[in-house]
Design brief:
7 helices, Rossmann fold, 6-stranded mixed beta sheet, alpha/beta
Length: 253
């Protein structure tokens, strides 16, 4: 059965020119991401995963190639059209939470719905429902300064889901959390993904993510090294294929 593609990258390259130097951040990347799946993008620092992440989120444009979201070429959109798409089609979760400190949990969750011109009563009802889903309905009136890191990230997840997006982009969602809280957040995000049917794409270094993702994209030097299903994962923590080859050769001498 053919799967419904929500994100498609076709021959995407990104080149930066800085101080007379040329950096190839992405090199001819092809990638299909399916509706409702949980995908992790993994790789070392400087591998290009953040650049690919930004391309999918409409935060940057490719030097060559195309990125489609729900069959729309996002590089072809003007600034108004892109803002509309990002508000309604994409939810964002950041490692530093990025909650507005002067707003309550409820107000932070409702804010994207305000931008989307949602009826205020409907937005408030949905905001409370989402806070209940992420387990902090009793904290709806608290500001970020009165919440733990894990609670703030739960608010951020609720905010990301506010406009019923097709995609949630999670940028290192566990980086500022302790081990147990990070594991709880990952599990909850997976459950919400399955319940709501949203696609989750996470750029991460956290190998706990491998326990719950459907597929992993391993990226290095701006190119996709391999794509693996969770059940087929060949995990060598902190070691990529090239490094393992060198180790194997050394062991044979």
């Amino acid at each position: 059965m053919r799967r419904d593609t929500v994100v498609r990258a076709l021959d995407v390259s990104r080149v930066y020119e800085l101080g007379g130097e040329t950096t190839h951040a992405l090199r001819s990347v092809d990638l299909d991401i399916f509706r409702g799946e949980y995908m992790a993008i993994m790789g070392p620092s400087g591998s290009g995963k953040s650049t690919l992440f930004n391309m999918i989120g409409g935060l940057d444009k490719p030097t060559a190639g195309m990125v489609f979201i729900d069959e729309v070429d996002i590089a072809a959109l003007d600034s108004f059209e892109l803002a509309w798409l990002r508000c309604r089609k994409i939810g964002y979760i950041f490692q530093s939470f990025n909650l507005l400190p002067m707003l309550t949990a409820m107000e932070n969750v409702v804010m994207p719905m305000t931008f989307a011109n949602t009826d205020p009563d409907e937005a408030r009802d949905r905001g409370y429902d989402l806070l209940q889903k992420v387990g902090i309905g009793d904290r709806w009136s608290h500001r970020p300064g009165r919440m733990s890191g894990g609670q703030q990230q739960r608010v951020a997840i609720a905010r990301a889901l506010a406009n019923e997006p097709a995609i949630v982009l999670a940028d290192e969602p566990t980086a500022n959390l302790d081990l147990k809280t990070g594991a709880d957040i990952i599990t909850m995000l997976k459950q919400l993904c399955a319940e709501i049917g949203v696609t989750v794409i996470s750029a991460t270094h956290d190998h706990k993510m491998l326990d719950i993702c459907d597929r992993v994209v391993w990226i290095r030097d701006g190119a996709i090294e391999r794509i693996e299903l969770r059940e087929n994962l060949d995990i060598h923590v902190g070691v990529f294929e090239e490094d393992r080859t060198n180790e194997d050769e050394g062991a044979g001498t």
